[in-house]
Amino acid sequence: MRVALVALLLAGCTRTSDGVCDEDPECESGQVCARGDHLCVDPSEVRTTRTEWTINGQPPDAGNCGGLTLYIQFLSNSDQDDFGFSPVPCEIGLFSVDNLPVRYRSVEVGVQGGSENDRSAFDDEGNALLDLIL
Question: Phi, psi at residue 99, to the nearest 5°?
């Protein structure tokens, strides 16, 4: 009787994934939660990216950012598939994403509400360096 009760309780704790997620533990064993998609995928389908930017060739700081608010947009081959974040503080000069689907090949950083932006492809290690000319 006691064994049956324990088995019943453990069965209630089994996690099954419908493929939709907000974090890795919601996925089946061996899968990760892809950023942007919120889908469980194999680790080979995602990578960590690191986007760094400068302002007019200089490291961003309070002086050359002048209170600017930026956006960051991750770009795939399909315009309908792009996604991003805003506001992004200018002064940080860095935006990293883990578990970004590999179909996002490039990134754009720009001034929110302005025309100034720069775009770059990610290198093989997932890095991109941009320079905003203001």
Answer: 60, 35
